[in-house]
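Input set for joint prediction.
Command: fold jointly, output tokens.
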Amino acid sequence: GESVGLHLPTLSVQEGDNSIINCAYSNSASDYFIWYKQESGKGPQFIIDIRSNMDKRQGQRVTVLLNKTVKHLSLQIAATQPGDSAVYFCAETYNTDKLIFGTGTRLQVFP
Amino acid sequence: DVKVTQSSRYLVKRTGEKVFLECVQDMDHENMFWYRQDPGLGLRLIYFSYDVKMKEKGDIPEGYSVSREKKERFSLILESASTNQTSMYLCASSRGQGLWEKLFFGSGTQLSVL
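tokens >
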């Protein structure tokens, strides 16, 4: 499949371990954040979102943490599986202005 | 599930050709988007539309135009393709309330301009 980024930061984890993917966002006034997952050869897929009035939100096996003080967003994946291997993007928006996407982090899961 | 379908997975065109990229969504979404994705640059917004016949420029509209004649269909047009338009093109849609929330993406069209 196509490479979405030749020089992406890469996180390698062992199957079954927890993964933490980090994202520093740019605008301290951003009020809505999203994590997307992009598998090789596919378009980005929505994972989870969070608004700025929250610090934490949980989904199925995923948790997003928001630290507004340091403009930091993280995605935690519990019990990482081979199917979690992909590029993960964070995105931010302020007051319904356009989404700003990060450049992505590649997650590699090895047995 | 929302399905966003892009008509071509791979396209090879020559410099100067007029290129049409088609996108159809089946969930009656008001908003549709065209992005391009390049290594190291992430996703960049070309154009978007929040209603039929409405269009708004994104961050990199130069060299592109769009058409939204029907709610379910959003076309990206390269009037005269150039090599720097070689890229992965991604179409997306979202429901009316929350223009930028929960975009659903197609699988992309990898365009090569020779």
